[in-house]
Amino acid sequence: MFMILSLHIFHVNIFIKIQINGDLMKTSDFYFDLPEELIAQHPADQRDHSRLMHLDRETGEVEHKHFYEIIDLLEPGDLLVLNNSRVIPARLIGEREDTHSPIEFLLLKQNDLDVWEILVRPGKHAKIGKRFVFGGGLLKAEVIDIVEDGNRIVKFEHEGNIYNVLDEIGQMPLPPYITEKLADKERYQTVYSDPIGSAAAPTAGLHFTNELLEKIREKGVKTAFVTLHVGLGTFRPVKVEDFEHHIMHTEHYVLPEETAKLINETKAAGHRVIAVGTTSCRTLESVAAKYGEIRPDDDDTSIFIYPGFKFKVLDGLITNFHLPESTLIMLVSAFAGYENVMNAYQEAINERYRFFSFGDSMAIL
Asked: pTM value?
């Protein structure tokens, strides 16, 4: 049973600190026991043939479908908002230029055209001034700085466009719980991905095909795009029991003018705005928190959405099944209700749904 305890101001939103049966909600309340064999190691054979759980946001009732049946849950006038960020093939396997000892880079953030912040393994080989070679010399790098958390700043050398080189020699930065090699790099990209910049895929969109999107539009459902470049911080666990003290990662987003116009028109007409993925959700609610309304914007966000958050934009959410004790399951619980979500997750486990990035989908409507 939920109880209201106190109010906390977040930007212009009001959080209601929630109790469960008289106890303060804490990180461990979002734990669930997931059998390892339910962690999807590869995508479904066909994108839209993954399973789909429909969770009724009001009643908590669930029904079991396949993703291509998402069209039956959508109504003419609805607006789907999708994150079109494209994943960088950011994992590089190479060697030290002088000793030829192996090295692994994971690109985190582009500071300048050829200057990047990276994670490196083993770190002892990556001192300032050390040089590395990747792809038989297609890409070279020199460590120029070490930042406070141990990440390195490197300057790359290459011919032509660095993204073309990364497409040729880079590997997809799959999450650590995926141990199998990905046969086709495009299966970790949405079919509508465009501006490159993410270190992880906006996985809720992986289930859509171009054909399904066309059928959805033919039904009278509109689509619009935002860009939020997903950082590896999305996988960072919440390590404090009082999750309010968790420090959220920062990610860059763009909400274009055309998308803002469509959202405002949809809301004014009394139709639903449905976010495809937690990244689209965070973008929309960040802008609404910043301005009190939806308008075009280009900024960074570190918004942390957990139960008690007052949504200003969302009427529906399409999302995957997330890690226990993560900020993502907290966001979903904020939208659909803690008890509804935890019950639905147990149902998904009982029904042998596939979890996490390459797993099955949930539509909360």
From this structure: 0.90
